[in-house]
């Protein structure tokens, strides 16, 4: 069976992958690295049509095989942009593959910071949020507690946007979902004033 997606979407077949720590190794029959939401929609629809399971990977810092798929693997490495910083509202909007370290560098220029960070800033924001990454202080919550809006491609190939204010139940179920509710393509995070500028 030939997989047909947008000609723009890089596709590799039978790719060997491992997590950052090299303690988990697996082979994925189809590895995609889309650069646009429309490409993810095409991949999801193709997977659905052919009854294939999809897992999304970020920087693969997890110590568990939660992100492994022998069928379809989607990397968000090409969807890594900090889209907008709103200094007045103290928010930042980013693509799901944005690296936390790079988000921190961009928002620091506006005197802002994330209120919670994990032990590494090398994770993708969608990966860190979807897996419940948190700092050492339990009263500050996880990185997911900073999300106020999430855009994702569902398992049906539909692009949805959920906010904590408008759809709280669906929003909370989707934010920290281990990627099981869809492919996270965009997030809006509530920031705080950086202690360096406060």
Please describe what this structure looks like:
Strands 5-6-10-8-9 form a 5-stranded antiparallel sheet. It has a 4-stranded mixed sheet with strand order 1-2-4-3, covered by helices on one side. It is α+β, with helices and mostly antiparallel strands. The chain is globular. The model is unreliable at 1-5 (pLDDT under 50). The protein has helices at residues 37-49, 100-108, 125-130, 168-175, and strands at residues 11-18, 25-32, 54-57, 72-75, 82-86, 91-95, 112-113, 147-153, 159-163, 183-190, 192-193. A hairpin with a 5-residue loop joins strand 8 and strand 9.
Instruction: Return Rg in Å.
Output: 17 Å
Give me the count of strands.
11
- Low-confidence segments: 1-5
Order of helices and strands: EEHEEEEHEHEEHEE
